[in-house]
Amino acid sequence: MIRTDHDGWKVRESATKLANVYGLENFDARIYPNGWHDNGFDDSEWGETCARKPSFRKRLDTR
Q: How many CB atoms are located within 10 Å of the residue 44 CB?
C-alpha cells in the first residue's frame, strides 16, 4: 500500500489500453502530450482526483 497526500493529484486518459494478468499490455505513448513528465507542464486540462474506499466482495464458498 502506498499512502500519499491527496492534494495536487490529477488524472487523464491512460496510454495503456489493455493490461491483463498474463503480462500483456498495449501501450501507446503517442496519447500522452509532449512534455507531460517535465517540471512546469501545464496540466490545467487534466481532471481532479477523488479519494475512494476500496470495495471488497465477499468470497463465495462453492463447496
A: 6
- How many whole angstroms separate alpha carbon 19 and alpha carbon 27? 9
- Cα–Cα dist 47/23, whole Å: 29
Q: What is the pTM of this model?
A: 0.49
Over the stretch 29-61, which tens digit does the pLDDT of each residue have? 888 888 888 988 898 888 888 777 777 666 656
Here the cell at position 23 is 503480462
Check: CB of residue 9 under 8 Å from CB of residue 49: yes
Nearest 5°: phi and psi at 30?
A: -65, -20
